[in-house]
Design a protein that fits this description.
Blueprint lengths: L5 E4 L23 H13 L4 E4 L10 H10 L3 E5 L9 H4 L5 E5 L11 H15 L7 E8 L7 H8 L6 E6 L5 H5 L1 H4 L3 H13 L6 E4 L10 E2 L4 E5 L6 E6 L3 H10 L2 H16 L4
Parallel strand pairs: 1-2, 1-8, 2-3, 3-4, 4-5, 5-6, 6-7
Antiparallel strand pairs: 8-9, 9-10
Helix pairs in contact: 1-2
Bound molecules: iron/sulfur cluster (SF4).
Amino acid sequence: MNFPELAILKPTSRCNQNCKYCYDVKNPCEISLDEIKKIISYISQNGTKSVIISGGEPLLREDIGEIMAEIKSKGLNVFLDTNGDFFLDRLNEIERNIDILGLPLDGPSEEFSYRGKENFQNVIKILEHYKSKKERPKIRIGTVVTKENINLLEDIAKLIRNFEIDVWKIYQFMPTGPLATKNRAALEIDERSFLEAIKNLKDKNLQLNILTCSSESRKRAHFFIGSDGKVYVPEDEKGDCKILGSVFEKGTIEEWKRITDLKSYKENSEKVLYPLSLEEH
Ligand code: SF4
């Protein structure tokens, strides 16, 4: 069985934040470290080569260091997607096993942050930590563009140019998940406005590696393993998701392949792993 090369593993659905645009569908179930190890072993044997550790906030798991070490020990690339609030506190446990570090920035200053002032400062502290450090993971800043911050992109660019950023990934807000769906009217922008804003940004030749992700290009384009260990697909325009089943059941991956837009999945995976193709700094 050929498994998807890139998996998104959500070891927890818990989060200390409550972002207006959050896509996550909360699931109180949380699989054990042993179960996670079995899943990692199985997917790596069947062709998965890279894992995004996402959430919720993955650093709320006590055993996140062991989870990351396990993924790395199987020879897989590890992409840690975190809101940054606990990163520096847990550096010793996790840093050696990160290939790509994904951090959020919604605005150019603490005055505009969907996660509050403290989170903005925490993210900046991490960027300061890696400034001029030879040994560091590739860093990807993620910005979700909404009606509220679409005019702030150039200022965000000016801010992140002060740091060692490998990729700036800019997402169009996507109304998926209970919170994002609830806040849809306040946040949603159409694809044309989104692409126009990105084009204007790129025309300014800001010397940043910018990757663009429209919401259309992300529909049914990921391989998620939820905090209950089940493979699922987020449902568009709704607050829930379609559970496909255990990774160990043959039919689960077949069903995933049947309902996934495999071309978009491949393109999205290439974008996620793009930082690894960049030259060493
Ligand atoms: S977007 Fe991320 S940080 Fe914000 S509530 Fe959702 S999981 Fe937490």
